[in-house]
Description:
five-stranded antiparallel sheet, 33 helices, binds zinc ion
Amino acid sequence: MASLIETIKAKIDVVDEVGLVVALRKSGKSFQGLCPFHNERTPSFYVFPESQTWRCFGCHEGGDIFTFVEKQQGMDFREALLYLAEKAGVSVEEYSSPNPEQERETNALKERLRKLNEDAVLWFHQMLLRSKEAADARAYLQSRGISSESVIAFSLGYAPDHWDALSSYLLGQGYTEQELDSGGLARPREMAKVGASTMGGEQSGGVYDYFRGRIIFPIRDMRGRVIGFGGRALGEGQPKYLNSPQTVLFEKNSVLYALDMARDAIKLAKQVIIVEGYVDAVIAHQYGTKQTVACIGSAITEKHIQQLKKLTKQVTLALDPDAAGVAATEHGIQEALKAFDRTVVPVPVVANNRWAASKGYQRHEPRGLIRLEEQVDAEINVLQLPAGEDPDEVIQHDHSAWVYAVAHPLPLMDYYFVARTAGLNLREPAGKAEAAKRLLPVIGTISDRVKRDAYLRKLATMISIEERSLYDELQRVLRGQKSNGVIAEFSDRARQQRPIGGVKSPGEMSLHEEQPGVGSGSASSNESGEAEEEEATRSSRANDRREQESRTFGLDKRIKDRIKWEDYLIGLLLQNPGLWPHVCGIINDGDFAGTDTRELYHIFNSVHQRDSSPLFQSFEQFVPPALLETVARARRNVESRSPLDGAGLVKAAVQCATRLKRARLIQSNTELQYLMRGATEAGDGAVKQQLQRQLLDIHRQLRTIDSAMHLQG
Length: 713
Ligand SMILES: [Zn+2]
């Protein structure tokens, strides 16, 4: 049986799916449109029906139908799988669950609880709007500046101060006590101890309302479905805030309030602002800062950020300005840094430190040495508000200050300068030393040399210390940090031995390729380009189901070979997680051709980054059921080969990763060459120029790869 992913891909054409949100124009074998992921006037976004992939040559995003849905709709892989499966009319349970029966039961329960929640929202809302006893609640909301439009938009509600007002209503609607309990809306009454044990039955004593005497903030998931509630006590009730208990719908540590209402605005503004309370979020939306969500009930966790990172890479923290808020902000920053993907970038370790050079320092480091450094693929910053004021106050009373702060958040490093030196006397030697001790390690995390030097200078000025001594101290700090880095040596000589690129045609380039299945296919696809183009024009794209299926099921050989290499690499990593540092600098998610292998590599990365020595024997526990077959396939791939020793393993993994990277670059090269031809024919100089730049970049990367392969032998 074809895998779930293959079945979905065979049933849904990536051109159709992308076409729902991007106006596509056919151009030769591909389709062209304005990229939905960055702002542009001339289209650099392409969909390739033949390979069922898409790529933007402006912002470098790319992938298959799954990647597109994930990025465009802000879903993770599991969500995209559900969405696409539903669309393709296939049942995920049938394919993926080891226990379809139980799966169906859980789904039915979730469905029932969603319905229950919707009914509760309406009831709470009506209570707030109409009941006499909600007068205090209405007055409170008014005193906080919440408009009646916001009350309606957020379906705010009121839970009266009775033991069973909501429960008796819901029981009257046909829900059971068990369902009210599972949904977190009611609790079973404590029975007298003797009574409970003699009667033996559960809940025969009835239930009582979980929320009483509180203003109710319904909490929805990203798709707008109510998953739980937050209740704020009126008056002196304790606790001040009470959230739904953990249920099958409500996962306490990952809930973001107003995410459904903020989703589109976050994508548009390319920023998410995280505030602390319900009221802050409602007020922010009311005053037009709709990219705001509230992190409620707990500190910011990695799970919060996981939901946001598909929508934006800019996270702005706007937590309360008290001491607890400062600690929460530092914690939030760390969690955000953990959650975002890392890009491993090669950083030359040559004597090119401009600051040192400008000061005339001689540094003797080997030429051509490259250090691989992790960069967090995100911009995390902090909203700077007037001292001591909460966001909702600033928004209402000093709106221009709020708007300015939102547009000019404090970069993380500047925030550290403020937060970490608060309370230090920077005129005293002890204060100066402490400031340097606290700030040098964070300065050391900046990969960009120019930026790093600028902050070093800032610190020097701040504590009036000579730059040189700080520079030396920073080097000591860096050496300490580098010990777990990966050093790869690329000598200049090797680089010069195999000149590739710029002037050569893609065909020529591919002919140098001797590894089976890697890159060689790109040349043949070029040779047969004309014929395929004609064919593509003849067939109407969406209606010819048979053609689609043969294309996807009968993946042509070069892709199949690539998948085999991908299986091999995943298998190697699962059996020997220690190989990760050797390959992470070479490839990333986007280099994988297989949807399943790409997602597995993604999961592997995130597990690895969270925990440096995770137990990979149980890797399967992190994997969606739909991908378990691929895990098994990858493990089989490695087991079918003769075992390797330590050095052999490293060599095999590095070679495999390098081949995959090269195959991806060759594919990009082919696509670009093809688009270049189109631009030339159309006489579009600007596009041509842009594509040319992309080509040069690809060729530069190919040169680096080839010199690395040369060294690997
Ligand atoms: Zn783009």
